[in-house]
């Protein structure tokens, strides 16, 4: 402890032992006592509060698939003393639980308003009044029949930025989904689709969490899929290609000037080092009898080449007879 700290400690001790210091301590003590009384009075005051109570179904058989959508929470408005509601204000709320076998009506899990209110009163305890809840009843159809697998189609309207390209198929992490229904599915239902993805100006590969389009009265599993959109930059590249001559008669040779054309094109980064076959050619018949130049044509262009151009587009030539 240095000398400065010792001096400060001595000053504080002297101040607390003085008459003014003792008055301050007494004042703080009364403030603390008043605060404690205020807390106790507040906890005894009746208030109305809203809670989102998690919902959980117990003992659901493995063979059952619920068609309806179980709400993740029930919105409950309650009235009671703060001391009774204090344990629900802090920390994570435990779920209110409903037993499966006690609430089956035909092929549905049914909770009427009386059952929901009764279970919520048990959840919050005696002395707490349930003012309202949302939803106040539940009806969840279910089936024990096996599901039907159908193809999943990804709906997209996606455009990359300039100098970028969608470099492969846009795919979901699953290619099919399983459909469950209380009633028989129509035979015409051969596929389902995702909600449409509309994006533009993409510059990198992205993944989207997308919902499958819902079908009335049908449970779709999975309900959400991950869609991958592969995006790559386009890189400028050049290469030279020899010019060949087609439709040459026997005993005739044609020499072109120049003998090569230069291709300029854009290619995805992943294919930059790959050489795809491209053929440049002139037609001997197109130069007969008086044309000074032959037009250059290209074979089918590989799909990975974009904005392709070439020079020259025509060449001079001489004919040699053997």
In summary, what is this structure?
By secondary structure, this protein is α+β, with helices and mostly antiparallel strands. The chain is built from four helices and 26 strands.
Anisotropy-based shape: elongated
Q: Approximately how much helix is present in the residues?
A: 10-25%
The count of β-strands is: 26
Report the uncertain regions. none
Briefly note the CATH topology name of the largest domain.
Answer: RNA Polymerase Alpha Subunit, Chain A, domain 2
Q: Please name the CATH architecture of the largest domain.
A: Beta Complex
What's the CATH C level of the largest domain? Mainly Beta
**Radius of gyration computed on alpha carbons:** 40 Å
Mind explaining what this structure looks like?
- This protein has 322 residues and is of the alpha+beta class.
- It has three domains: 98 residues, Beta Complex (RNA Polymerase Alpha Subunit, Chain A, domain 2); 82 residues, Beta Complex (RNA Polymerase Alpha Subunit, Chain A, domain 2), CATH 2.170.120; 88 residues, RNA Polymerase Alpha Subunit, Chain A, domain 2, CATH 2.170.120.
- The chain contains four helices and 26 strands.
- Strands 11, 19, 21, 22, 24 and 25 form a six-stranded mixed sheet that branches. The protein has a four-stranded mixed sheet with strand order 4-1-3-7. Strands 2-8-6-5 form a four-stranded antiparallel sheet.
- Helix 1 packs across helix 2.
- The radius of gyration is 40 Å and the shape is elongated.
- The chain starts with a helix and ends with a strand.
- The model has no long low-confidence stretch (mean pLDDT 85).
């Amino acid at each position: 402890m240095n000398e400065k700290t010792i001096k400060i400690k001595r000053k504080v001790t002297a101040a607390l032992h003085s008459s003014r210091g003792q008055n301050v301590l007494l004042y703080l003590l009364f403030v603390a006592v008043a605060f404690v009384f205020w807390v106790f009075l507040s906890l005894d005051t009746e208030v109305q509060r809203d809670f989102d109570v998690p919902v959980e179904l117990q003992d659901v058989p493995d063979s059952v698939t619920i068609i309806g959508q179980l709400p993740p929470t029930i919105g409950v408005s309650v009235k009671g003393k703060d001391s009774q509601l204090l344990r629900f204000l802090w920390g994570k709320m435990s779920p209110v639980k409903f037993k499966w076998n006690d609430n089956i009506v035909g092929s549905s899990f049914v909770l009427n308003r009386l059952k929901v209110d009764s279970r919520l009163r048990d959840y919050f305890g005696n002395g707490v009044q349930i003012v309202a809840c949302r939803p106040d009843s539940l009806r969840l159809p279910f089936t024990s029949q096996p599901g039907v697998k159908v193809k999943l189609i990804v709906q997209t309207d996606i455009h990359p930025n300039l100098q970028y390209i969608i470099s492969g198929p846009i795919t979901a992490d699953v290619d099919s989904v399983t459909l469950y229904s209380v009633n028989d599915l129509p035979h015409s239902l051969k596929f389902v689709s995702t909600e449409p993805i509309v994006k533009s100006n993409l510059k990198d590969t992205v993944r989207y969490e997308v919902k499958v389009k819902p079908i009335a009265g049908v449970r779709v599993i999975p309900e959400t899929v991950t869609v991958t959109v592969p995006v790559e930059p386009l890189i400028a590249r050049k290469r030279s290609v020899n010019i060949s001559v087609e439709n040459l008669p026997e005993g005739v040779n044609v020499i072109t000037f120049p003998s090569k054309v230069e291709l300029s094109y854009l290619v995805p980064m992943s294919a930059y080092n790959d050489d795809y076959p491209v053929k440049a050619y002139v037609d001997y018949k197109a130069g007969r009898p008086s044309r000074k130049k032959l037009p250059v044509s290209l074979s089918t262009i590989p799909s990975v080449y974009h904005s392709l151009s070439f020079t020259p587009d025509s060449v001079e030539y001489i004919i040699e007879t053997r």
